[in-house]
Amino acid sequence: MKILLVDDHQMFLDGLRGILAGSGLATDIDAVNNGQDALKKLLSGAFDIALIDLRLPIMDGFTLLAELNRRNNLTPVIIVSASRDPDDMQKAVELGAMSFIPKSSSGQRIIQTINDVLDGKVTYSNDGYPAADTAFLNESEEWAAQHNMTRRQLEVLRLVRKGLSNQAIAEQMCLSVATVKSHISAIFHALGAQSRSESSKKAHQLGLD
Fold it and tell me: Would you say the pTM of this structure is higher than 0.85?
């Protein structure tokens, strides 16, 4: 497990690093204190997940999320923020963050959120934050969530519709071919399809972009 921590408060980074190291969840923990360095790390290294603050020097968390999207970097991101502004949560969701939790969260909550996100779940804390609204998600993501299809599987489906092979999808998404096959099996089940072509046809009929 390789995790990137991004925060400009060293004390918080040290505490979070201690929580993760003590949990046995991570074998490799890297940390940076600004968004620009975080972008370089995420583009050059195969991180399993990133925990990112919004208020960062040089490049803030929103800009970082937007850049990761623009460059098709699919590293799952959890926003860990002191902000309680619902507009911040909505914007983070729209930019692809898979979770938004308070900095005051317990170590147990942080570990659980990481496990949930790694399982493909889009999860948001209710510790003083407004509940995530499915209106924040686009129609494809809302449909996928209702049919037990994860965001990662939705992305696999999009690449299948583009005609990419399992190997090509695995390389683009930094996954094993076996994991890609597992995602495709889940996609077939969700769509009631028996083949790639049938899944692509049904996805088009359902308006899944």
Answer: no
Name the token pair of 87: 């507009």
| 3-state DSSP assignment of residue 29 | strand
Beta-bridge partner residues of 5: 31, 51
Q: Single out the residue of 135, 156, 121 nearest to residue 49, CA to CA.
A: 121
Instruction: Dig out the tokens for 127 from the structure.
Output: 């510790």
Distance CA 153, CA 159 (A): 10
Give me the half-sphere count of Cα atoms (radius 13 Å) on the Cβ side of residue 63.
12
Instruction: Considering only the C-alpha atoms of the chain, give the largest distance between any 2 of them, rounded to a whole number of Å.
Output: 52
Distances (CA, A) of 58 to 97, 125, 184: 20, 27, 39
Which residue shows structure tokens 């969840």? 25
Hey, how many other C-beta atoms are within 10 angstroms of the C-beta on 81? 22
Taking residues 198-205, what's their average pLDDT? Answer: 87
Note the pLDDT tens digit of each residue in 60-70: 999 999 999 88
